[in-house]
Gram-positive cocci surface proteins LPxTG domain-containing protein (Pilimelia anulata), 280 residues
Amino acid sequence: MLIRAGAVLTGVTAAVLAATAMPAAACGFSFVGKLPIKAVDYPTHRCEPDIGGGPYQGKDVWVFELPAYRGHHGDFRSVTVKFDTDGDRHSDKTIVIDDGANDGDDIVKHGGTSRAWIVTPAGWKLTGASAKINGKAPKFTLGFTCPGTTPPPPTPTPTYTKPPVTTPPTTAPPTTAPPTTAPPTVTPTTSAPKPTPTDCPPSVKPTPSKPTHTYGKPTPTPTKTTAVPMVTYPSSSGTSTSLPVTGSGLSALILLAGGLVGTGAGALFLARRRAAGRAS
């Protein structure tokens, strides 16, 4: 009994050691689509808190799955992932996903399926992957991605610009003196006085003398006088009206005076004769 029990224990221990020493099998990467590809361009997007988390600002999460196939199961031992980081469509970055280590990637068992996840800067392109597994699962796939969010544009900080201080000029503005020219004096115009009309002097008409009887003396013949027209002479002070003094006018005046004297003498003579007749 003791030998049999020891033999059984020895057999179990040998089996466990044999299983532990079994090398991991390689597993091919099955991807439907074209490579390289960005996380944002992959059709299946999910963000799981226990499988990489997200979404993150400026970072992408890639999740690889090892599903069962025709009863064959397996678990990830490691996953090697290659990326194009500069956009030239060639692999320039290789990352190995291990179990644990807390280095931005990990291998977990979730819902009965082995999954491996990694966080990369946003915009990297997946160019290929390979895995080592325990079990007989023939292939693994890219299960889903959690694309990073675009950082919001920086909010511009308002800048206060102090308005320029305008210094008032120290030079006094020129003073405009009022004009000293006196306004022109308007002199009223004096019009010349209008000439005052004067009445014409009365014309001297000859006085008819009564017929006298002269005894022994000739009776003077009355002379006809003619009115002399007035002549107006202009002067600086107005219009002056006077009788013209001519030779013919003076002769007429002399004759008129002689006639008057003769008439008076005749009348005096007759008066004396009548007085003498009454006395005798």
User: Anything to note?
Assistant: Residues 215 and 269 are 10 Å apart (CA to CA). The chain is about 20% helix and 25% strand. The chain has two domains: 23-146, 204-280. The mean pLDDT is 75.
